[in-house]
Amino acid sequence: MEKVSIKTYARRHKLSIFNVVKMTKSGQVPTETVLENGKDVVYILIDKDVENEVAKAIVHEEDTEPYSLRKENIRLKKEIEKLKEEIVTLKNRV
Length: 94
What we know:
Layout (H helix, E strand, L loop, with lengths): L1 E4 H8 L3 H10 L4 E6 L2 E8 L1 H10 L11 H25 L1
Antiparallel strand pairs: 1-3, 2-3
């Protein structure tokens, strides 16, 4: 078992420090608190089994669908057309 700091763990897995802290608080990652220079320092215990579970849970950007401005623009134009039709029908009612 290897002990690494939160910052090192975040850098190693390309995560934000905030997300790593959330993982430690929720118990997803085993930790050990050590008193150094009068401060409590949290170290993450690295084990192969835990690393495999964490690797499965991490969603990488390559896995997500790329964002297309054209698709979003087309979707918003359709939404605008629907809203214009609703406005016309509401004006006719009044």
